[in-house]
Design a protein that fits this description.
- This protein has 12 helices and 11 strands.
- By secondary structure, it is of the alpha/beta class.
- The strands form 2 sheets. The chain has a 7-stranded mixed β-sheet, sandwiched between helices. It has a 4-stranded mixed β-sheet with strand order 5-7-9-10.
- Helix 6 crosses helix 7 and helix 10 packs antiparallel against helix 11.
- The structure holds octanoyl-coenzyme A.
- The site of octanoyl-coenzyme A has 22 residues, from helix 2, strand 7 and helix 5.
Length: about 260
């Protein structure tokens, strides 16, 4: 376990875990904390012993948004010079699966952090929302884009304009999150899912993420071309030989990620 200023980081059976750890302010994300999260996510992405990355908070909050106190003195020019959102772009380049495990509040920037993950699992008492409109601002780390892609413009506008929180069940019904579990089971269910994913062929998992991630920006034909190229690429891996041989020999495959 490594303790940074605002997060804890450890690896368990091929799963890299980033635990947000600023409980005194409901894991509000100050800029240093976001830097730490992104740097550690990138380190896991490079680490060959890690196949899946989990981001989680505590029982009360995944993260209650950007640190409002830190933003009080911001001006357009200070933000233009600091470029505080550039670091978020790096999350979109992570190649390994990212899973968010959400109990409690995932608000504002906290919801955006979850939406940057590929899969979201939540305890049934979790609350998701964008309260920025009540602060006289708006989402800034991708919320309007990511929620709209997840649930469509009409629904997304309703949630973002009114700043209301949606329950885990509502979020799941709208296709925004994957699974709802009992809050006390969140940890176990998340690690089960992460372990299952960690046992899949890593190159397949990575190339599937790339292809699915491009589905919204490419035309159908271009998306299918990318998929085909990635399909061919899997045939350059030892895991393809292992996977098919294991099937023929009626045994479980053992994938190495090469
Ligand atoms: N920033 C700073 N401090 C916070 C934040 C926050 N976002 N959220 C909670 N805190 C602090 C509280 O001020 C309080 O501190 P103290 O004990 O010193 O008074 C402590 O955390 C505990 O909070 P509460 O006492 O309010 O606990 P409750 O259980 O009553 O309420 C809530 C919890 C509902 C989460 C409530 O604290 C709340 O509404 N928080 C603000 C939520 C919010 O508006 N989030 C959006 C922020 S703006 C944003 O995210 C912009 C996104 C774009 C940039 C993303 C970059 C990271």
């Amino acid at each position: 376990m490594v303790n940074r200023s605002y997060i804890k980081v450890f690896v368990e059976n091929g799963v890299g875990v980033i635990q947000l750890d600023r409980p005194q302010v409901a894991n509000a994300l100050n800029r240093e904390m976001v830097d730490e999260i992104v740097a550690e996510t990138e380190a896991f992405d490079r680490d060959e012993s890690v196949r899946v990355i989990v981001v989680k908070g505590n029982d009360k909050a995944f993260a209650a948004g950007a640190d409002i106190e830190e933003m009080l003195e911001d001006t357009p020019l200070s933000m233009e010079l600091l470029d505080p959102f550039a670091v978020w772009d790096r999350l979109t380049r992570i190649k390994k699966p990212l899973i968010a495990a959400v109990n409690g509040f995932a608000l504002g920037g906290g919801f955006e952090l979850a939406l940057h993950c590929d899969l979201i699992i939540a305890g049934e008492t979790a609350q998701f929302g964008f309260p920025e409109v009540k602060l006289g601002v708006m989402p800034g780390a991708g919320g309007t884009q990511l929620l709209t892609k997840a649930m469509g413009k009409r629904k997304a506008l309703e949630w973002i304009w009114f700043g209301a929180s949606m329950s885990a069940k509502e979020a799941m019904n709208h296709g925004v999150i994957n699974r709802v579990v009992a809050p006390e089971m969140l940890e176990e269910e998340t690690m089960n899912m992460a372990n299952q994913l960690a046992n899949q062929a890593p190159i397949s998992v990575r190339l599937i993420k790339e292809a699915a991630g491009k589905a919204e920006e490419l035309s159908l034909l271009d998306g299918m071309k990318l998929e085909r190229k990635n399909f061919y690429l899997t045939f350059d891996s030892q895991d393809q030989t292992e996977g098919m041989q294991a099937f023929m020999e009626k045994r479980s495959p053992s994938f190495k990620g090469v």
